[in-house]
């Protein structure tokens, strides 16, 4: 639990930061620079001093309710909503979420709508231009226009919006707006169903939008085509653990059933103009016209991984089925997640919800449980449009020149002039400049599908058949859903659109925009990878390639998929003797075994045999000989391994990067060796074990060397680096001195985040720590559900954050210590309620 001292620190820091904002924003000087980091969803900023810091039992009026609703809270903040109608359930969910996470809700929708600059000034322009050009707002409008108002999602969106607006009405009446609105004078607009669809689009974008085809092109221009495809192959050279080994159906691609909401009409013969002014223009405006749009790092898929697995039968103590899941996202205060239990005639579900979206994304109902991982399949395609200086505003497609559709926006900027933006649309999507390349973007998140309807149907499902049927409507982002139920069944399936291009095209590169490489459809749902009650009684999804090498469709390249080190640890865990219980799954979720070390350390030790080592190098080598390959904070061997691996990767590839002038600065997340791109680690493993004389080990223009020589050199450099950083004694080089985790506040204010602390794990451990040596990526929500046996129906969960986005509140970061200490709480805490709201209809 958060201590009184911790809350006092947050209070002081909150007041200090608020004063700084007052000085900067109160006089209209422009944005606070730290608020540029507020572009990351899953965040919030401090509330006003009048905001509640504790939740107590109350009787409240909530307009629009059909019947009274009960909302209960555990001491830790977990919320349970019990309603007599489904409408009331979602109205209350919107109200409860807004009351505890209002600033987060508003920042997320502003991010997706391109309205951050209105609040934070010019610091938000880069993001606003990108989002308006890509088109989350256009897609949200198209989705809402296509949503039947009497459908489950239509009614849920309307009710949820009413609940959010009830809390906004309270803020308007009392004037107790969060500090950022009081200081800027900006007032949030009422919440609409479109806002929820924008928030949903933000998450889709961060899990599914990437620039991999453009990165491949940059690599081919510098390294050449053959080295690029050898080092970043379409199919990984190492053994993969597909959860669907086949046999496979080869069916024709499924044509799109809804239009791309961000593409020009193919039949259009004249330019059209639509106005999407965001607010009344100020007296002066700065026109940007049809312009290049930069790519903020915060708006695309970066360090996302996840684990989800299930077992049944003899693998589970007492029989039945058991499921574990821990989606890996950026950890922030507040969190991506808001834990809630929802009960009404149509829903009996509990788990992690996404603030701003009705229902539950991961969790359980009375009969089934599920978690998810990123499918890592191709979701973003880029097209090289044929343009001509003689035909400005036109592009060549299907044997004819066609005018681009133009969409205009006015972006209000706090403390500055309104900026005008024009986005050109082709038949493939919006024209944008990404990583220096002017292309049109065809992204699966830009189609007007009804994913929320699919999610709500999954919340109501009662068996694998109904669960799979529900997810047939899920389109983006493509996800692996792992499943277990009360009848002892387990399964997994891939749901989402995976685009297919004509045979002979290379969708891992930018495609021709003239029409001959257009998407012909998506993988049919019945042909997507899946598994149900496998004979081995275990299913695991860790972002690996889902199908074997003979799968008849394009899923993506090795640049997308995880190399399988977490998968190996999970499979090995289940291969041992004895049946497993809930506590075994919570232990596995916190496991920090690095399986790449399991594979490569013996070869490293062999390479060091017979070579002359210094005393310090011998000590470092000896640490590895007895190491259990666990990235524990107190392990010095873990530091030696990590530093060696980084040195080894640079020793092999840096000479090629330098000689070929790979433009790492164009995309530091993919092309910079300091980020250690996934395929390079995998191919380096393959060469070391199976092809130690590969030509890549010899630097350009240098004398021949093999893997052994490269490893020896890298080891010597690693020992020298560690001595320089941590002193002369290898036994003191503990991993916790190098590796930390933090859970930052997106304000950038140190006192409002959970400061860096020594932590175990790395990007390849089950308890993953993504990024570099200071990680803010990892298990954002841990869930374990046991269905039968001695602990029938038991389910637990934890996440690193708190239910409130108010730093002075007791529920701001109270769950972090539990998460750090590998502790869990009951998923549905109705029996442990310490506060209750009784909600009744009123004016």
Describe this protein's structure.
By secondary structure, the protein is of the alpha+beta class. It has a domain at 592-733: Aminohydrolase, alpha-helical knob region (Penicillin amidase (Acylase) alpha subunit, N-terminal domain, Orthogonal Bundle). It is 32% helix and 19% strand. It is built from 21 helices and 33 strands. The strands form seven sheets. Strands 1-33-2-3-8-9-10-11-19-20-24 form an eleven-stranded mixed sheet, with helices on one face. Strands 6, 7, 25, 29, 30, 31 and 32 form a seven-stranded antiparallel sheet that branches. Strands 4-15-16-5 form a four-stranded mixed sheet, with helices on one face. Strand 19 (479-485) and strand 20 (490-495) form a beta hairpin. Helix 2 packs across helix 6, helix 5 (136-145) crosses helix 8 and helix 9 (212-223) packs across helix 10 (225-231). The longest helix has 28 residues, at 86-113. The radius of gyration is 27 Å and the shape is globular. The protein starts with a helix and ends with a strand. The relative contact order is 0.17. Residues 11-50 and 269-292 have low confidence and may be disordered.
